Amino acid sequence: MNSSSGQLKEIGQSIPRKEGRYKVTGKAEYTHHVKLPGMLIGKIFRSTVPHGKILSIDTSQAKAFPGVYAVYTSEDIKKVISEPYYGPAFLDQPILAIDKVHFVGEPVAIVLAEDPHVAENAAQLISAEYEELPAVYDEVEAMSSSAIVHDTLKPSGTFPDLKHLIGKKNTNIALDYHLKRGNAESVFASAKHVFEHTYHTQQVMHTPLEQMVSVADAQQDKVTIYTASQSPSFVRLEIARLLGWRENQVRVKVPFLGGGFGAKLYIKLEALVVASSMISNRPVKISLTMEEQFYTITKHPTTFKIKSAVSEDGKILARRCDVWWNGGAYADIGPRVTQKSGFTSAGPYDIEHVDIESYALYTNRPPSGALRGFGIPQLVWAYESHTDEIARSLNIDPLEIRRKNILKEGRPQATGTLMKGAEIEKVLECVASKIGWEKPFDKGTGLIKKGRGIALAFKAVVAPTTSTALVTINADGSCILSMSSVDMGQASDTAMAQIVAEVLGIKTFEVKVSQPDTDITPYDMATLGSRSVYHMGKAVKLAAEDAKNKIEKMASDLMISKPFQFKEVFIKHYGMQAGTIVGFGSFIPTYTPPDKKDGSTSNATPFWMVGATGVEISIDTETGHLTVDRLINVVDCGNPLNPKIVETQLSGAAIMQLGFSLTEKMNLDAGQVTNASFADYKIPGFNDIPVIIENEAVQAYQVDGPFGAKGVGETSTFGVSPAIANAIQDAIGVRINELPMTPELIYRALRKLHQNPLGT
Amino acid sequence: MNQLIPIHFRLNGQEIMTEVQPHQNIIELLNKLNLTGARESCGQGLCGTCTVIVNGKAVSGCLEFAQFVDQKEVKTIEGMEINGELDPIQDAFIATGAFQCGFCTPGFILMTEQLLNENPHPTDDEIKNYLSGNLCRCAAYPEILKAVHLAAENRSKK
Fold it and tell me: Which residue ranges does the record assign to the 2Fe-2S ferredoxin-type domain (chain B) (predicted)?
């Protein structure tokens, strides 16, 4: 064994991804490619109305179609799963619609056939009759609408803050989070300056290029599920619950994911393939089309009304945040998004008096869940646009107003939790210096106007969550890391292998990482919310240390002195190349749930993510066309385990958010998504990326993180949208308060500014 | 739907004789032959994930009928690695970390090969324009740009 000299050898190195060769040769395994003998393909028949009672479903023609194996509706599902409802927060989502449909695109029936074309054609022969009910689409209207999406609320019982909603009727509110700190109302009454603005975000979709896909192979008393899932442990738990089985009867295997971004969490297609496989006694695969993904999970549209009392010199004295989250027809993880992001709705600022009201609403849209940021980008869009509007009104420099108000180390954040290990000031100063804020800026002449903007944000990681890991040393000294973290492109396999290699004194390439398989890889809450580096990283480090302690103990018992090769210990102990050493690690951070009355907590999160964005833009004032000339992403991610991977995460996440800022929007007409295709829904391509992209992780160290590291997968999304809106105002003097900021919106705002508005 | 059409073509240098249904596309044909590097994603020829080379020209495998490769030469990502040795483009993608999830990567690599065959030393703008039909949701674009330049450099050394 190599002696540890205190100098890190693997951590902090830009080690290339372990699976690189498989990805560039097209040989990497994805669920997309899973084929099993006798496998049937399922195609889904979907609801055509946004809200309605199901009067009848006619499957006779589909059943008679040559090559069709079977057609199932909820009546068939109930024969194998008597209560076929699932969900992480509410047990509200049926495997196939029961009695009612709640959005256009909801699965109503499934056709199974060996040939996917047969299944697809037959699905089009199914018809259903509905008695249409009033529908609601807007999150604010849903608060008081007479259209009620669900007759009775059914929280799953997992989360204590949802218990009071059990059995509630006549409401669309799926979570209400209230935070009250100080006395904001009285400050508003006496303050000299009070600003109030309302901002909106739109519905968008993750669009992973490997569409959601699951395969189930059910036997009498066990089922194996191959699925493109970010949460194999949750899939096992939830499928076992649905079937009334033990967890060990459900095996979930996850190869590489062709992108996730929060789309492939909890249960998506898994329950439907399991039920279909159980009824048909055949393996069943469902692979969604790109269009169908838009009917499956999306990002919450929001309305955020934000109000601040501000002193003459720009100190924020009080803030009130009212946030309405449009959760769509099923809650998914929306109530967690509402609560967790509720903690930080007031921004990374030191404000004595804060009121936060955050509501998760049911509507008749496709369901909303987590999308790269867990609600934070929607909040930052509002509070950082608001910060600039205040600064401009008071004639204060936008950087200065942030400097004046930022939360400093040790100060209480809105929940009362003291800030620690959050380099807010450093991140702000870094973005300011990189963009050259103090230097003169050419605003452009003629028709092309230029502007620049910044935005600053933070996030509390979702808590408390558990990760566990196993590190195995084989008799020849080779190592395997077994964990249920899912590598969906973020390179967690490589980063975690670096941790094992560092602890054991070997090379990263020597560590094999086994892909999630719940029969082998131990529990992990999920790969989401930038939690893996910190939580799984700590579990992996503990597991590697446990393995190291065991082999060192064995060596010392055998009087083998350091340095030694692992192999010689096994040979001496077992008399031959035999045996195995297993190290185990488990980690759950401490956490204090928010007080029921005032929403406060002394321990909201184990760590903070901090990010700032700076942009320089050009606008063609004749067309409203906007170009991002320069995009600067600065974050505090602690000590980067692998700087190259961190950089790729920073630019990748920021470019994704660029799409949500400028081009992406799901258009709805009477509940029907009208642009569920890459032809009409524009994600960023090569020509959409900024000419200059700069990424920087400020020098930081998360004291209790593995080797000082913490998560980074989402941080550079936070500030992109408001930084652009702030730059638009800087360039042409108009404020855009809804996303995406299309040329049309910009041009209309310009014409309005010049008192020559365009007709609608 | 059960009509079968015999086809005969070359796939990565190998003679293939098989049968396809009239409505099956190239991706379905390749999957039947256990090649999984070309993948159908958007299903409309808009994302480039299904890119394959037919008679030296990149096509969207999800839009082209399988029967049309009859008597043609097809190259896929699996044909880029020769005797266990990676193509300089593949090496460049690894060296620059020009992918995250890797699902779109084969399409980018095949388009890059076609680009460098036509234009051995492209500028940034030429690369962006040429690869604008390939989408990467992880947005590894800055790294891909570097990979193409590095591949161009390495190919010229060869």
Answer: 5-80
- Residue at token pair 């590697």: A544
CB burial readout A203-230, b (16+ within 10 A) else e: bbbbbbbbbbbbbbbbeeeebbbbbbbb
Q: Which long-range contacts (CB under 8 A, 24 or more apart) does A4-8 make?
A: A4/A505, A8/A502, A8/A707
Cα B37 from chain centre: 8
Residue A582 sits in a domain of what CATH number?
Answer: 3.30.365.10
CB contacts of B39 in chain A (<8 Å) are 30, 32, 209-210, 258
User: Tens digits of per-residue pLDDT, A673-684?
Assistant: 999 999 999 999
Instruction: State pLDDT tens for residues A287-334.
Output: 999 999 999 999 999 999 999 999 999 999 999 999 999 999 999 999
| Residue in B closest to A657 by C-alpha | B139
Q: Which residues of chain B make contact with A693, given a CB cutoff of 8 A?
A: 142
User: Per DSSP, what are the bridge partners of residue A106?
Assistant: none
The whole domain housing B124 covers: 88-157
Neighboring chain A residues of B137 at a CB cutoff of 8 Å: 206-209, 259, 261, 656, 683
State how far the Cα of A224 lies from the Cα of A697, in Å rounded to an integer.
41
In terms of domains, do A620 and A698 share one? yes
Give residue-wise pLDDT tens across range A401-447.
999 999 999 999 999 999 999 999 999 999 999 999 999 999 998 99
Q: What is the ipTM of this complex?
A: 0.98
Among B79, B96, B123, the domain-final residue is B79
Question: Based on the structure, what is the number of domains in chain B?
Answer: 2
**Are A650 and A715 contacting, i.e. CB atoms less than 8 angstroms apart?**
yes
pTM of the model: 0.97
Same domain for A727 and A602: yes
Tell whether the model's pLDDT for residue A3 goes beyond 70: no
The residue from A531, A562, A587 where one domain ends is A587
**B92 in the same domain as B61:** no
* Cα distance from N-terminal residue to C-terminal residue, chain A: 73
Helix (H/G/I), strand (E/B), else coil: B55 = coil
- The residues in A 110-129 lying below 8 A from B, measured between CB atoms, are 115, 117-118, 121
Look at chain A and report how many structural domains it folds into: 3
Domain boundary (B62, B79, B96) is at: B79
- Looking at the structure, tell me whether residues A534 and A620 fall in a common domain: no
Please identify among residues 671-690 of chain A the ones whose CB lies closer than 8 Å to any CB of chain B.
677-679, 683-687, 689
CB pairs A-B closer than 8 Å: 165
In a domain, A478, yes or no: yes
- pLDDT per residue as tens digits for the range A346-356: 999 999 999 99
Query: What are the C-alpha distances in Å from A268 to residues A95, A153, A174, A232?
Result: 9, 20, 20, 12
User: Residue B24 maps to which CATH number?
Assistant: 3.10.20.30
The verdict on A409 and A498 lying in the same domain is no
Domain that holds residue A538: 465-587
What is the average pLDDT across A591-613?
95
Distance from CA of B71 to the nearest CA of A (A): 25
